Amino acid sequence: MTYTKTVPQSVEWKNTHISLLDQTKLPLETVFIDLFTIEDVWDSITALKVRGAPAIGITAAYGLALSAQSYKSLSIAEFKEKLNQDRDYLASSRPTAVNLIWALNRLVASIECAKTVNEAKTTLIHEAIQIQVEDEEVCRQIGEHALSLFKDGYKLLTICNAGSIATARFGTALAPFHLAAQRNVNLKVFASETRPILQGARLTTWELLQSGVDVTLITDNMAAHTIAVKGIDAIIVGADRITANGDTANKIGTYNLALLAKAFGIPFYVAAPKSTFDISLQNGSEIPIEERNPDEVTHISGVRVAPEGVQVYNPAFDVTPNDLITAIITEAGILQGDLGLEIRKIFGE
Ligand code: MRU
To answer: Has 338 been annotated as catalytic?
Structure first.
């Protein structure tokens, strides 16, 4: 298969609808679907057609703006009331990634001073576009900061897909790899397959191959052996929600990797934008952890691999305690040491 050096994008605003890369079909098919209604957006987020914290936020923002265009014959007060209801509906699509509610609240706040419905409708579209534009730049900055930590020839391990298609562009944990490929810096990535639904195997490898990154796929249970035998230099992951003390929720299996990093004495980096921080929560025990359909565990790609009737536990995320995190790489810089203090600083507290 021939790959050109491109950094893919997954969400695009098309004036009358949203064009979305259906990530459930990757890597076998590259299909873009059109979302015309708020229900289409809710379903796409719940079904993981779009996934990854920033991309969920961007899509939900467009979904809210899209829905608001269809409100007819309302006063501005009624319009705002309806917008709040739609915000709550979209916010219920997935519980863990805080970027979702962050983006929705930002849209609602953007029309606080709007005097007319027409003004509010236009503002909502502009604000949603602005969120996407800003996220691309933020990811590029995260990539630059992360790349400053890596030497030519480094071998890095990652999990899930904190990549270009999980954000506006470039990604968080994968941003340094896209930038390195553009600059002919040689970084070798080991991608953990990420059961149950294989975001690492299906998405990260697809994305990095397109970008010309040297990527090797492993199954999740190969991590310790791979670190020992291949000489992994560091682990880098994304995040869905980071609390005031630096505890970090990310894809299930991330906590295992943080413990392995400690055992092997290698750095464990979290890469995330400020929109992924929830400083209203003191620590990770307060983060709502999504539990998903047992079929994701009993089946692989629709084929049953476990007996009918078996009990299943399927948490989609885990929480890595702050003391296992070497640094959090944000657009505002690299946070290390007392993470709680550093987080307060970047939020001006
Ligand atoms: O269930 P998913 O695929 O939405 O989980 C995604 C992750 O855990 C990512 O690492 C995180 O959202 C960061 S994406 C830049």
So the answer is: no
